[in-house]
From TrEMBL, chain A:
<keyword id="KW-0408">Iron</keyword>
<keyword id="KW-0560">Oxidoreductase</keyword>
<dbReference type="GO" id="GO:0047111">
    <property type="term" value="F:formate dehydrogenase (cytochrome-c-553) activity"/>
</dbReference>
<dbReference type="InterPro" id="IPR009010">
    <property type="entry name" value="Asp_de-COase-like_dom_sf"/>
</dbReference>
<feature type="domain" description="Molybdopterin dinucleotide-binding">
    <location>
        <begin position="661"/>
        <end position="778"/>
    </location>
</feature>
<keyword id="KW-0732">Signal</keyword>
<dbReference type="GO" id="GO:0030151">
    <property type="term" value="F:molybdenum ion binding"/>
</dbReference>
<dbReference type="GO" id="GO:0051539">
    <property type="term" value="F:4 iron, 4 sulfur cluster binding"/>
</dbReference>
<comment type="similarity">
    <text>Belongs to the prokaryotic molybdopterin-containing oxidoreductase family.</text>
</comment>
From TrEMBL, chain B:
<protein>
    <submittedName>
        <fullName>Formate dehydrogenase</fullName>
    </submittedName>
</protein>
<keyword id="KW-0408">Iron</keyword>
<dbReference type="GO" id="GO:0030313">
    <property type="term" value="C:cell envelope"/>
</dbReference>
<comment type="similarity">
    <text>Belongs to the prokaryotic molybdopterin-containing oxidoreductase family.</text>
</comment>
<feature type="domain" description="4Fe-4S Mo/W bis-MGD-type">
    <location>
        <begin position="46"/>
        <end position="102"/>
    </location>
</feature>
<dbReference type="GO" id="GO:0030151">
    <property type="term" value="F:molybdenum ion binding"/>
</dbReference>
<dbReference type="InterPro" id="IPR006963">
    <property type="entry name" value="Mopterin_OxRdtase_4Fe-4S_dom"/>
</dbReference>
<dbReference type="Pfam" id="PF10518">
    <property type="entry name" value="TAT_signal"/>
</dbReference>
<keyword id="KW-0560">Oxidoreductase</keyword>
């Protein structure tokens, strides 16, 4: 989230799309209801009338997979009706930049497309620059090749009628949403967009989010209290685990992992290639070297490139689908699972279960026996005698049986004290990781092979005992001066000469010499509900990102009732109710003083993004499996996605599988259900797998509420109870009736509450940028079980 | 129905400070004492420890009451600025994360081709896993490729971590990159 949970109370309008906070983030809804008490509106856009929709002022249905037309139409509406925040757009975004001649867009394709490689050469998307390398601008936004004019032209195709026929949203409801939300473009007003996996789990997931960010920039909503682009993250520490680099492409703190390529062959080359000339990322060498010092300790010296060579360098995409494809083909030998359950939660889960049997060994750390650690059992439909995988199940402690911090969606790093000793023989994951690493290091101690060298160089100094010193880990994350051992104050102090270390630069500042700030519990509101003395928010305890944009170019808040930070001319610094997400002494009139987006090279918001794999503007493509042709171009699905073929990813046709399906969650269960289906009360509250469908579809198929039904897709089938409701309605798509069904994805064969696994139906297909699977729009058919 | 209404009326009186004396007379007992007794039964002498909910990323505060090495009660943390004491159905029931009979209490091992788990001790498990990691690394480790130091193994994968603490994810990232693992993924991708 650019903003945070208690900040939601300040919104004039919340557009909730691809999320269902009333059920999946229930407590967040308190702050939305508070916003309404303050006069704000709540809009819910969802294929299903959810409990969030039931609390909304306006509900608009849309067919799964049509967010870009929906938002593209709002962009068009805001421009057509002159509702954009012009000064914000001109000063704080790249709308004024001029794109080079040669950029084109025709029939769903941007210039530079190569159908053979299914990828773009992005050269023709770049900006015109002046001699000093800075972009050429036209702040009147009139230049025909200005981003604003290109944007206007691109989305003029997304008129209300075209949008409505693709999304299935009734025109009247669509216009109500457009009117209510675009009203936040008025200077001083703020609107927030809340989204979750309903947005991201698509082959155009990244562009869906991009379209939200563009709309927010256009309406001047980023940096404002009650504004922002807010991902409602679904796991207690999915924010933190992402920040700490548990994805193949990132080292902690979003430092790109080096690759097997000549420009990354040395630390010097890597830093030269990856460090931009301007913007805050120009400090990258300090963060990289400090990370290497944290990882390799005294072994990392200037003379050996700070052990940069020991970092693994990959040469391919190692993301989830690719990983399971490699496993399926027998390319992997062993795997670790830390509290994860892909046999229920992975796409095309039946294939992911099969893939596991190709491993020699599997280590699972969990509180429970999950469907994944039990994949070899008869209950899983397996023949144990034919599966040669060794499985190690290590009992893990629950969240309050150990100490540590988690980062919530609003980036608050909150400390959890240990309430009780771990149950039975279970151990904290930190202990397990530490004990394993000690043993592995022990085995290599007296060897000098290449495999040994990189392990021996790794600095693992958390005490000799089996129990690692928690505090030493926390201190290393923040970073310290390598000579004195004193904690660095924050990431501003990090250096690229080896004199500092920091395990994750974006968190640096949470643990200065004074102590661990994540433990703070002062709940006094020091203004605008930012609670600056409660826990710690990265970066630098800033609560609202890009908050410089909450003030006008001169440094005065756009709205005195929504003042976050402002320029204090007498004191010559930025001050206010939040920590400035900006250099506090840079005056509005100084160089860069009007550039709120400090992480970006040009300091302004990216209305146009010439760096994404599928284009600088979001464009509608149908899901990989769709019931209708693409009404916007002849490109059926995203032309830049990797298509996984063979029996690893069978594709269904609309003839055989005419119904759109999506998955979702219920309040009582969490993700793959292993945490909640192993508890009595929650299992009793939500005990059965079901398929939710409209009364119209049920009638067509002769299905009654609570009948057993079978849902089939090209990948598999599931049996479950029918739940016939008014919450789904058939969509009218270009005059044709299209049915949609939905189902929870929490169930499996373990625990108290069992049921068929929805992900046996979902495809192995991912987004063009992130490879997130398309769980939220696929084709199926449904019939009565008897 | 009548009784429910009566109780409700009495309750309303009880909760109003000015009606307290009257209510005590009406009910025939000292409400304050009864209230104190109830507290004693449930959570007296329990240790209260603040935690953050392990489910979604709203990050609600919860108080865990423990006594005699057992979790006796959990409740929303009234001091927490986000939830101010309230919780959803999942947050309300986190006591059962400790009390559930489904918890795995000892390490389990499944041998190739076997149809059952065997309980093993931690030492054996960790030593054996460390050996497997070493065997696999030694067989598959690539130090250099096309003249570039790549120091990697593409034969080991690590998945998961979104429920771990930050400090744990840090050590996990350090461990896996240190081992040369490139198939490093977790729930944020899916």
């Amino acid at each position: 989230m650019t903003n945070h949970w208690t900040d939601l109370q300040h919104t004039d309008c919340a557009l909730i799309i691809g999320a269902n906070p009333a059920e999946n983030h229930p407590i967040s809804f308190r702050w939305l209801l508070k916003a309404r008490e303050n006069g704000g509106k709540i809009l819910s856009v969802d294929p299903r009338f959810t409990r969030t929709s039931s609390q909304a002022d306006i509900y608009a249905p849309l067919r799964s997979g049509t967010d870009i037309p929906f938002i593209g139409g709002l962009i068009n509406y805001a421009i057509e009706h002159d509702l954009v925040h012009k000064e914000y757009v001109a000063k704080y975004t790249n709308a004024s930049f001029i794109v080079k001649e040669g950029f084109t867009f025709k029939d769903g394709l941007f210039s530079g497309y190569d159908p053979k490689t299914r990828s773009y050469d992005m050269a023709s998307w770049s900006f015109e620059t002046q001699e000093d390398g800075t972009p050429v601008k036209d702040e009147t936004l009139q230049h025909p090749r200005s981003v604003f004019q290109l944007l206007k032209k691109h989305y003029s195709r997304y008129d209300v009628d075209s949008v409505s026929t693709v999304t299935g949203t009734p025109k009247e409801e669509y216009l109500k949403v457009a009117e209510a939300y675009c009203a936040t473009g008025k200077p001083g007003k703020s609107g927030t967009i809340l989204y979750a996996m309903g947005t991201t789990q698509h082959t155009v997931g990244t562009q869906n989010v991009r379209s939200y960010a563009m709309l927010q920039l256009l309406l001047g909503n980023i940096g404002m209290p009650g504004g922002g682009v807010n991902a409602l993250r679904g796991e207690s520490n999915v924010q933190g685990s992402t920040d700490f680099g548990l994805l193949f492409g990132d080292l902690p703190g979003y430092l790109g992992a080096p690759k097997e390529q000549p420009v990354h062959a040395t630390l010097k080359a890597y830093l030269e290639k990856e460090t931009p000339a301007a913007g805050y990322w120009s400090n990258k060498p300090k963060f990289v070297v400090s990370l290497l010092k944290a990882w390799y300790g005294p072994n990392a010296t200037k003379d050996n490139e700070f052990c940069y060579q020991y970092l693994p360098k990959g040469n391919k995409n190692y993301s989830h689908i690719a990983l399971f494809n490699a496993m399926y083909k027998g390319e992997l030998t062993g795997a670790f699972l830390f509290g994860t359950n892909p046999v229920v939660g992975g796409p095309n889960a039946g294939k992911e279960k099969e893939a596991l049997s190709k491993l020699d060994w599997l280590v699972a750390m969990d509180l429970w026996e999950t469907e994944t650690s039990a994949f070899w059992q008869k209950e899983a439909g397996s023949d144990p005698s034919k599966i040669n995988t060794e499985v190690f199940l290590l009992p893990a402690a629950s969240s309050y049986e150990k100490e540590g911090t988690v980062s919530n969606s609003g980036r608050w790093m909150q400390y959890r004290w240990k309430a009780i000793e771990p149950k039975g023989e279970s151990k904290a994951d930190m202990e397990i990781i530490h004990m394993l690493m000690q043993r592995i290091k022990g085995l290599y101690k007296n060897e000098s092979s290449p495999a040994a060298k990189s392990i021996n160089a790794l600095y693992w100094n958390y005490g000799e005992h089996d129990h690692p010193e928690f505090d030493l880990v926390a201190r290393e994350i923040n970073g310290y001066y390598t000579k004195t051992g004193k904690q660095v104050e924050n990431f501003g102090m990090l250096a690229d000469d080896g004199s500092t270390c920091s395990g994750n630069w974006i968190y640096s500042g949470f643990y200065p010499e004074e102590g661990n700030l994540s433990k703070r519990r002062d709940n006094k509101d020091n203004g605008m509900g930012n609670f600056l003395n409660w826990s710690y928010a990265w970066p630098m305890n800033r609560r609202i990102l890009y908050n410089r944009a909450s003030a006008d170019p001169a440094g005065k808040p756009w709205n005195k009732d929504k003042a976050v930070i402002w320029w204090d001319a007498a004191a010559k610094k930025w001050t206010g109710h939040d920590i400035p997400d900006f250099k506090a002494v840079v005056a509005p009139t100084d160089k860069g003083g009007m550039n709120p987006f400090i992480m970006l090279k040009d300091g302004v918001g990216g209305m146009y993004a010439p760096t994404l794999n599928d284009g600088p503007f979001p464009e509608h493509y149908e899901p990989f499996e769709s019931p209708v042709p693409n009404a916007f171009s002849s490109q059926e699905y995203n032309p830049t996605i990797k298509v996984w073929g063979g029996d690893f990813n069978l594709k269904g046709t609309k003839k055989q599988y005419p119904i759109v399906a999506t998955t979702y969650r219920v309040s009582e269960h969490w993700q793959s259900g292993s945490m909640t289906r192993n508890q009595e009360w929650l299992s009793e509250l939500a005990g059965h797998m079901y398929i939710e469908m409209s009364e119209e579809l049920a009638k067509e198929k002769g299905i009654k509420n609570k009948d057993q039904v079978i849902v089939t897709s090209a990948r598999g089938e599931v049996k479950a109870y029918a739940m016939v409701t008014k919450r789904f309605k058939p969509h009218m798509i270009n005059g044709k009736k299209v049915h949609q069904i939905g189902m929870p994805w929490h169930f499996g064969f373990k625990g108290y509450a069992t049921g068929d696994t929805a992900n046996r139906l979902t495809p192995h297909i991912g987004d063009a940028n992130t490879m997130i699977p398309e769980y939220k729009a696929f084709l199926c058919d449904v019939r009565r079980a008897d | 129905m009548v009784e429910i209404n009566l109780n409700r009326r009495q309750f309303l009186k009880l909760s109003g400070a000015t009606a307290a004396t009257l209510a005590i007379v009406e009910l025939g007992f000292n409400e304050k004492e009864v209230h104190a007794k109830t507290k004693e039964l449930k959570i007296a002498k329990a240790t209260v420890t603040p935690t953050i909910c392990p489910y979604c990323a709203v990050g609600c505060g919860i108080l865990v009451h423990t006594k005699n090495n057992d979790v006796v009660y959990t409740e929303g943390d009234p001091d927490h600025p986000i939830n101010e004491g309230s919780l959803c159905s999942k947050g309300t029931t986190i006591r059962q994360l400790f009390t559930s009979e489904k918890r795995v209490l000892k390490p389990r091992y499944r041998a190739p081709g076997s149809d059952k788990w065997e309980e093993k001790d931690w030492g054996w498990m960790l030593d054996t896993i460390a050996k497997r990691v070493k065997e696999t690394r030694d067989k598959t480790f690539v130090e250099k490729s096309n003249g570039i130091f790549v120091n990697k193994t593409e034969a080991i994968a690590s998945l998961g971590g979104a429920a771990l603490d930050n400090e744990e994810t840090y050590l996990l990232a350090k461990m896996m990159r240190g081992l040369g693992v490139t198939y490093l993924e977790h729930q944020a991708r899916i």
